Each structure stands twice: as structure tokens, then as C-alpha cells.
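All the exercises in this workshop are built on plain-text protein records. Sequence and backbone structure share a record, each on its own labelled line. The question running through the whole workshop is how a given chain folds. The record below serves as our worked example for the rest of this section.
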Amino acid sequence: MTNTNSTFSNYPQYITRGGDTAFAPPYILNETKLYGFVLEGTSENLQNLCNKYLNIPGQDQFQYRPAANRVLMVFDTIAHINSTQPPGSDKGFFSETGEVMFWVLTEAGK
């Protein structure tokens, strides 16, 4: 399935990190259950995460920062995940059982 929505072209390109087994977004998720818990974080630690994974040296289009001192810890079970865009959409699908992730709400500006 190919997404023809031009809205995606307005965003920065997905950054693939070494060792990252995730397909590039956006995704299709079937038979999904999510459980989330809100945790308190510190501005300094959350900004360090933004700097490490989102703020690209030499790129001045966006500067990411945490929007709150909260982190959402999420547990999931997903039967079927696949990317909607090539090259990930050409590689099939995978499942997750008991995956744990931390989501940080960010805001972008110059």
C-alpha cells in the first residue's frame, strides 16, 4: 500500500539509526492492545533525548524540545505491523508481544 498524501513530504525525512529494527513510519497495526502509564521526567534528561535522537547537527529547520516533564511508558501486543511506505512495505510484517517503549511529547520550533 502506498500513501499518496502529500502531507508527509512536509516533515523531515525519517532517520534510520544503526541497530534499529523498526520500519520507517507510517505503519498499519492490526489487533493492537496498548497499556500506558505516565511517569515524571526531568527537563534536562528529556532534552538530552531530543538532542541525541531528533536534533541533527547542521540542520536548522527544526529544533525539538520536550513539551512537558512527563513520559508515557507503554506496553503493547500487536499481531501484525507493517510499514505503508517502501522500502519497509516491501519487507513483510512482524508482530510484537510485551514490547515496552517510552514516548516523549515534543514540540518543534526554530
Q: What stands out?
A: The helical segments are 43-53. The two ends are 34 Å apart (CA to CA). Residues 5 and 85 are 11 Å apart (CA to CA). The mean pLDDT is 84.
